[in-house]
Amino acid sequence: MKVVAFEEFGAAGNLKLVDRPMPACGPDEVVIKTAAVSVNPVDVKTRQGEALASQLEHALPLVLGWDIAGEVVAVGRNVQNLSEGDDVFGMILFPKPPNGYAQYVAAPADELALIPAGVSYEAAAASTLAALTAWQAFTHFGQIKAGDRVLIHAASGGVGHFAVQMAKHLGAYVIATSSAKNKAFVESLGADEHIDYKAVRFEDEIGDIDFCLETQGGAQFQRSVSVMRDGGTIINLPSGLVDSDREAAERKGLFVNYFMHVFPSGENMREIAAMLGDGTLVPHISERYTLEETAEAHEHIESGRTVGKVVITL
Ligand SMILES: NC(=O)c1ccc[n+]([C@@H]2O[C@H](COP(=O)([O-])OP(=O)(O)OC[C@H]3O[C@@H](n4cnc5c(N)ncnc54)[C@H](OP(=O)(O)O)[C@@H]3O)[C@@H](O)[C@H]2O)c1
Questions:
Q1: Model pTM greater than 0.90?
Q2: Mutate which of 159, 212, 220 for ligand 1 pocket (most atoms within 8 A of beta carbon)
């Protein structure tokens, strides 16, 4: 079968289409004929030698691809809940080597959910790591309550565009940031207020925030702290905060997750499946690539300008 692997960390050009044997099916796994895979910033940072690179170095040449959707073609002997022919999706094996940029992939059955009727493989693959991140930020690492004033940064991106829809579903009042060119898109997701982060400083416009999804971290983190109400919650996604960031949050008595770690969960995937099935959640796919074009998909994410999700279709 064909897979996209890289032998060394570095540029997107290191991603090469190569042959690999078909995956074996472990007792708790299913083998999936991959129909679509989505790409995330963590794929790009890891391929560049950052993020999970040091953890995954032992597995070089490495095949990334945590976000998969496809049809079950083999079922391990302990697996009760899935059968051959089922259409499934999930974020598999994160943060271990996933082997998902491939025509076939072996995946733990308990990290998958059935794709609801009427939802495409592409839409399902798009609604995995990014959707899980937003859902776990709002329901596991923090708790959004109805009526909360929620600030979502990078609302036009992979995580943010799911986060806006989910926060509205949970009854929040949503204030969302992106540049002006994505204002209409962000408002179409249900945001109550939009802030163009290039035109104004968001801390000059808003305050009394109950919950912030901080997608940028770094120098922006303390600006987000400044708009929080005392005792509010910040879930920070990128790594790299420093002591003064923690001190600023502690002075305000905030509950903060300084570096959230999304984790695979069949239960959360079934909750996302239900939201896809009833139309609560609609993924936006802005770019589609083939497996042969995986390097281009990475370069698009690397631009930092992705709207919604980038999907590889097999
Ligand atoms: N810790 C975890 O478990 C976890 C999980 C998922 C993601 N993450 C991290 O979270 C971050 C976001 O991920 P993602 O998949 O959503 O990224 P993404 O899809 O690549 O985000 C791109 C979007 O960010 C917007 N943007 C860029 N700079 C901005 C700024 N300063 N203010 C507001 N919007 C801005 C862009 O809109 P404009 O073009 O309009 O600027 C673009 O639409 C990444 O660093 C990722 O690695 C962490």
A1: yes
A2: 159
